[in-house]
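Appendix B, record 7
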Amino acid sequence: MFTGIVEELGEVVAIENLGDSSRFRLHGPLVTEDAKHGDSIAVNGVCLTVVETADGEFTADVMAETLNRSSLGALAAGSRVNLERPMALGGRLGGHLVQGHVDGTGTLVERIPGEHWEIVKIALPAALSRYVVEKGSITVDGVSLTVVDAADDYFTISLIPTTLALTTLGLKKAGDPVNLEVDVLAKYVERLLGRGSAAGADLRDLDEIKEMDR
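Structure tokens (predicted):
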């Protein structure tokens, strides 16, 4: 579990194509200082498992499913990436609950500079729009952000100077893909409400059958 508060701006050192998967080697001295084999590190919001670490770098195997559902497949040697270690139990939850399970990719549409911040407009898949609400939380490339405006096919976020300087969101340009993870609580609520409606319908049907038997 992560919080969406990026710890380090890392870099892709090399990518080895393994056919149906890829092995990434990434530079991140901070996130690897206490990392070991089997640990998790979020890379642009994607939870990856550490294979090995050495000299401030770590490697991770990225399966075809992850490459297909995220923007990691578009990375190359030299690409900058957002890195975050899992949250520690008992620590502060600075952002929101983030799983590192990408729901889909969006596209940066427009950057609107302000005096002390920048508004960024991002197009998103129609299937995800129902989970995005004004003043709600969303994770963009692993960064926990608050939604400013929410529409059917896009949303906007406001980026402060710290976010622009310390994450890849300050480097993205119009047309670039971004990983999106919506609030998991919204998905659970939708699922539970759906099941509740179905269960209610089943109970009503049962009552009707009992009435007919009488």
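Remarks on this record: The radius of gyration is 20 Å. The helical segments are 64-69, 126-129, 161-166, 184-213.
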